[in-house]
């Protein structure tokens, strides 16, 4: 069984992944936009533009893993007059932003109430959150492993640093340990040990490329 912990943090542009970022655990895997708007005029005037800015910023950093959560409250809607049916805001968001991904907008109904409707919405939200989070994590983990293999294949090139590579593969080991996949984590250290041992042997045999590697260290 894979165990994956997740934390919610406030959205900041500084947290979005950069092109030269080799780390895996330093940026969010899933971005969530929360709104409790139940007024179509307010949606048109502020919320819609805010979502547009948010999504455009994500696109700038090639981030496609997102979810919009609409929090509905009966108490709040009772204070409104001439309100449209409860699905109107959700439908507008789905039409404006989720034409091809309608599942990227979910409703959380009266989250503080102990009712069957609230529990059902919580269950649907958590299921969707888990699915999207695992999809994003799996995709980013695969990309990280591909980048690591590319870096490893460059080990015979001048200026290649074993220290830099060690930190990359060690982070992969940390990830497997976090997932409680301890055997996979140990494999990473075994591979690092084998690679370093080979460099030591080559260095002892007078391999200039290994000498360059040790100078970089």
Automatic annotation (TrEMBL):
An example Gene Ontology biological process: early endosome to Golgi transport
Xref: InterPro entries: TRAPPC10/Trs130, TRAPPC10/Trs130_N
Residue span(s) of domain TRAPPC10/Trs130 N-terminal: 1-212
GO cellular component, one term: TRAPPII protein complex
Superkingdom to which the source organism belongs: Eukaryota
Record PANTHER family: EPILEPSY HOLOPROSENCEPHALY CANDIDATE 1/TMEM1 (PTHR13251), TRAFFICKING PROTEIN PARTICLE COMPLEX SUBUNIT 10 (PTHR13251:SF3)
Protein name (record): Trafficking protein particle complex subunit 10
């Amino acid at each position: 069984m894979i165990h994956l912990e997740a934390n919610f943090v406030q959205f900041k542009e500084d947290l979005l992944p950069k092109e030269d970022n080799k780390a895996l655990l330093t940026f969010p895997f899933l971005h969530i936009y929360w709104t409790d708007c139940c007024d179509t005029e307010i949606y048109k005037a502020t919320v819609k533009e805010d979502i547009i800015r948010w999504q455009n910023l994500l696109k700038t950093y090639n981030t496609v893993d997102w979810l919009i959560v609409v929090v509905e409250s009966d108490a709040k809607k009772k204070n409104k007059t001439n309100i449209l049916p409860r699905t109107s805001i959700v439908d507008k968001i789905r039409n404006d932003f989720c034409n091809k991904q309608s599942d990227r907008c979910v409703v959380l109904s009266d989250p503080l109430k102990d009712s069957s409707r609230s529990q059902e919405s919580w269950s649907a939200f958590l299921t969707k959150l888990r699915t999207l989070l695992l999809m994003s994590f799996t995709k980013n983990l695969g990309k990280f492993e591909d980048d690591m293999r590319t870096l490893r294949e460059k080990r015979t090139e001048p200026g290649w640093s074993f220290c830099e590579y060690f930190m990359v593969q060690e982070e992969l080991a940390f990830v497997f340990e976090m997932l409680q996949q301890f055997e996979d984590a140990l494999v990473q250290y075994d591979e690092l040990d084998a690679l370093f041992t080979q460099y030591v042997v080559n260095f002892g045999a007078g391999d200039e490329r290994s000498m360059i590697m040790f100078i970089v260290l």
